[in-house]
Amino acid sequence: MKRKVSLLLIILLIMTLMSSIVIAKPKKGKFKQGKFKHGKKKSKKHAKKDYHDNSNSTDFVKNVFNIEDQKIRYFKKFDLKPEELSFILYLHSMSNRPVTDKEVNFIISNKNNWGRVTWHFGLPPIMFEEEILTFRHPMQTRSRLYLPLGKTGHKSRHRGFIKEKLNVDYNKYEYKYENKRAKIKEKIEIKLDKYEYKYENRRSGIKEKLEVKYPSYKYEYHYINRMTGKNIKQEGIGRPINPRIFYKNLRNKKDEDSNFHLSININIDL
Fold this sequence. Notes:
Elements: H1 2-20, H2 57-65, H3 69-74, H4 82-95, H5 101-109, H6 114-121, E1 126-127, E2 154-158, E3 162-169, E4 172-179, E5 184-191, E6 194-201, E7 206-213, E8 218-225, E9 230-237, E10 239-240, H7 243-256
Antiparallel strand pairs: 1-10, 2-3, 3-4, 4-5, 5-6, 6-7, 7-8, 8-9
């Protein structure tokens, strides 16, 4: 009997202890996220230049090309990048073509075919190594004969003491200019395998010649000025023309020489 009472007391004691036990839920701890350490930032010294982020890019183009504010404002409606604007100015300055809405839209719509654009402008689709292709003889302020947009064949000429002739078909571009009074001759010939430019001013003693062969882009350039004694010869392998690289070269040239300008005559149909 005593044994039964003892067992009963033990059972009651165990039940009492179990009922008094509280199982506490663990508190939600705050997880502190460790900071991820990134690699060291590149120093400004080695950072790649981004010429398109320059807020003064328009001022730069205006300064290099000596172009007035009114003419720069004309291009705002086309929403051009700095390299596109500078390249359009370069094309028109080298060819003396007038700038019109149709001309600009033609260039923009043929951004993937610079060969076609330069053909219309009578220019070689080439860039020298790290240099800007410009002719050293004094540029004429006159607007010369040019190939109308979209045409593959065209003939035109001027007669008199100034003779000028343009003859273009689907595989040949030929331009000739002669001013007998000023003793100036100029010739451009473009074929499928070659570009050739010749200029001669007998009064000033200047001769200039450029020849480019395709598809190798091998070029030979020669400039002689008997008045100054300057004689420049260059040859090498050029690269296909690229507005982005052209703009970069403009920047580099200006960084090297703060007085660098492209002396041109931009005729804009405002």
